[in-house]
Each structure stands twice: as structure tokens, then as C-alpha cells.
Amino acid sequence: MTAANSSQSPGTGWNSNSPTSTTVIGRRVVQYIIDILIYAVVTVIVALVLTSLFPNERGAEEFGVANSAAVALTLIFAVAWHATLFVAWPNAHEGQTLGMRAMNIRVVRIDGGLPNLGQYVTRWILLIVDGALAGLVGLLTMALTQRNQRLGDLAAGTLVVRVPRTFAHVHIKSQGVSRSPVRPGLRERATLKIP
Predict the structure, then answer these.
(1) Which residue, 168, 166, 161, is CA-closest to 111?
(2) Best label site of 92, 95, 99, 163, fewest CB within 10 Å?
(3) What Cα–Cα distance (Å) separates residue 78 from each residue in 47, 128, 136, 156, 179?
(4) Are 96 and 90 in contact (CB under 8 A)?
(5) What's the pTM?
(6) % of the chain residues with pLDDT over 90
(7) For the segment 69-122, what is each residue's pLDDT rounded down to a tens digit?
């Protein structure tokens, strides 16, 4: 193993020596805007559909006041959809939400491997705190931490790192299970560095 590869996590292609790979605050802001727009559009569509399926009992004269069943179902959907976007989706797609994929960033553990489901849940729960004051808490935390981590990242032991376009679909192993196919030799050429 060469000196350049000495800090590479086994089987991941991630290297932990670069000072710039976690410098992604701007990308994270745009990623979050993309993810929230996707979340909001789908949630509004579902709310409109549910409101039409469960009309107001008082009649059309009170337009805009939804049936309590429609409100309850919309709230349940909204939480489940949010968890899907920020927990289930990245867990199934190598650490990337849809916005992260668009911005070429991904979530990794401190050691460079893929986070487990518990780490994604921790990040998601603390998104409530990080998102406070229109995201100012998370933005300030990212700006003040060495690896640009928000509170959710600090608690979960994760980082968000840049994924070079040429290696956006690089094979990553998590707990010995292959997550996506890769051409032979590509993994050896791909080294994302984590400080």
C-alpha cells in the first residue's frame, strides 16, 4: 500500500487526507433546497388529492377548511414522505438524497464507509434542530466545524463529502455487501479524501 492510500478505508475507495472534500456548504444549501422543493411539491399534491377525496362536511361555503381525516392523513403522509427522502432514500442510494445526487455530494461515516440506518435516523431527527430559524442553526454549525458538519452529522458520526462527477457512481461496500456494480479497476482509481 502506498503512502497515498495508507488512510483509505478498506473496500470503500474513500481516503481521509484531503482538506477540501468536506468543503461543501454551498452545495449542501442548494441540495437542501432541491430536496425541500421535491418534498413540498409531492406533499401539496397529496394534500389536494386527499382533500378532494375527503370533502368538508359543512359544504362548499367553507372552501379551504379540510375534513379532519384529510388533515390527519396529510400529516401522516408528510412525516412518512420526509423520512423516505432523508432516511430511506439515502440508505438505499449510497448516501445520496435526490438533491445530493444533483449536487454530487453524499453522506459517509467518519471512517469513509456508508452510514447505517440508525445514523440516517439520527441525522433526520436532528434536522429539526438544524433546520431551526430557516436553517440558520445548521448553516452556522457547518460554518464553525472543521469538517463542515451540522449537528445531525456530529451526533451520527457522519460527513457530507464531494463526489467528483467522474466517480459519481463508484462502487462502495458497506458491511461487506456490494451496493452497485463497477468496472474492474475503477475502485482503485477513485479516491475521495476525507479530512
Answers:
(1) 161
(2) 92
(3) 9, 14, 23, 23, 28
(4) yes
(5) 0.73
(6) 56
(7) 888 999 999 999 999 999 999 999 999 999 999 999 999 999 989 999 999 999
Q: What are phi and psi of 11, to 5 degrees?
A: 75, 5
In 3D, which of 157, 175, 145, 144 has the Cα closest to residue 118? 157
Q: Residue 88: which H helix or E strand, with range?
A: none
Give 136's contacts (C-beta < 8 A, 6+ positions apart). none
CB count within 10 Å of CB 10 equals: 9
Which of 43, 191, 32 is CA-nearest to residue 124? 32
Relative to beta strand 105-109, strand 158-162 is antiparallel
User: Domain map of the chain by residue range?
Assistant: 11-193
Question: What nine digits make up the cell of 64?
Answer: 379551504
Start-to-end C-alpha separation, the chain:
19
Spatial CA neighbour of 159 closest among 3, 28, 5, 10: 28
The per-residue pLDDT string of the chain (195 residues; one tens digit each, 9 = 90 and over) reads 333 333 444 334 444 444 448 889 999 999 999 999 999 999 999 999 998 888 776 654 455 556 788 889 999 999 999 999 999 999 999 999 999 999 999 999 999 899 999 999 999 999 999 998 888 999 999 999 999 999 999 999 999 999 876 554 444 444 444 444 443 333 333 344 454
